[in-house]
Amino acid sequence: MSINPFKEISNEIIAFNSVKDYNVISFIFNFPPDVKRLWAKTTYLINDLIVHEGKGGLYTFLKRQGLIDKIFGDDSNSQRGVLHQYVIDIRMTDKGMAQFQYVSACLFQFLSFALS
After folding, report:
1. Given CB 3.0 to 4.6 Å as the disulfide criterion, which of 5, 40, 86, 92 pairs with 23?
2. What pTM value is reported for the model?
3. Which residues have C-beta within 8 Å of that of residue 44, sequence separation ≥ 6?
């Protein structure tokens, strides 16, 4: 029997106390290595869109509400043979941490829009 670890979607929130005084929420997206279109630098384009500091950008939208300090993404190719990871880290203000579900919803809505 073959087991496909990418068949099921895992929706988990893992919370822990940080070492530094930062409020950071990380979103880790794992993709199977056979998703060819990701190797065409799609994640770099997504990263450019989420960190855009101009009108209509996610960073600007959340920053103006006082919810975040910084947002950045990282495309990890070190696991290319087994797994492809894309990580989005959002450094939030105390106000943002109190509304982390709203910030998360904004990110996923933005990604849905950007990928459509």
Report:
1. 92
2. 0.74
3. 75
Residue 90's DSSP bridge partners are 25, 71
Look-up of token digits 């500091």: 53
Q: What is the C-alpha to C-alpha distance for residues 24 and 94, in angstroms, rounded to an integer? A: 10
At residue 68, what are phi and psi to the nearest 5 degrees? -135, 160
The pLDDT of 29-40, averaged and rounded, is: 63
Specify the CATH superfamily of domain 23-115: Metalloenzyme, LuxS/M16 peptidase-like (3.30.830.10)
Domain boundaries, the chain: 23-115
Using one digit for the tens of pLDDT, what is the confidence trace for 61-101?
A: 999 999 999 998 887 655 556 667 788 999 999 999 999 99
Interatomic CA distance for residues 28 and 76, integer angstroms: 10
What count of other Cβ atoms lies within 10 Å of the Cβ of residue 4? Answer: 7
Cα 63 from Cα 109, distance rounded (Å): 16
111 or 19, higher pLDDT: 111
Distance from the Cα of residue 90 to its chain's centroid: 8
